[in-house]
């Protein structure tokens, strides 16, 4: 990801964030099988790693990161988000990751901080 420089136009790059989030998820749960006893640890770790990576960019945003992990069992999982904000600067993205035993859905919301 590119580092933010003051004076740059403030705009949320969903594609960049999506790639970054998937890398964080892969790093935390990569090739492991679903384990109910580790889900709380995994979700906390994914959220913390993602948030740390986003903040390190130094871009003028406040971030909200949400993570859900679900065991593959044939059941459906539907999510939706809605935001009321400045669409020219603020943004969100949802990254979906899966392996043979589980799904992971991470949503990131970024609200620009204007100084």
Automatic annotation (TrEMBL):
Annotated coiled-coil segments of the chain: none
Subcellular location: Chromosome, Centromere, Kinetochore; Cytoplasm, Cytoskeleton; Nucleus
GO annotation, biological process: cell division
Oligomer status and interactors: Homodimer. The cytoplasmic dynein 1 complex consists of two catalytic heavy chains (HCs) and a number of non-catalytic subunits presented by intermediate chains (ICs), light intermediate chains (LICs) and light chains (LCs); the composition seems to vary in respect to the IC, LIC and LC composition. The heavy chain homodimer serves as a scaffold for the probable homodimeric assembly of the respective non-catalytic subunits. The ICs and LICs bind directly to the HC dimer and the LCs assemble on the IC dimer. DYNLT1 and DYNLT3 compete for association with dynein IC (DYNC1I1 or DYNC1I2).
Protein family: Belongs to the dynein light chain Tctex-type family.
Function as written in the Swiss-Prot or TrEMBL entry: Acts as one of several non-catalytic accessory components of the cytoplasmic dynein 1 complex that are thought to be involved in linking dynein to cargos and to adapter proteins that regulate dynein function. Cytoplasmic dynein 1 acts as a motor for the intracellular retrograde motility of vesicles and organelles along microtubules. Probably binds BUB3 as part of transport cargo. Required for the efficient progression through mitosis.
Name assigned to this protein: Dynein light chain Tctex-type 1
Source organism of this protein record: Pagothenia borchgrevinki (Bald rockcod)
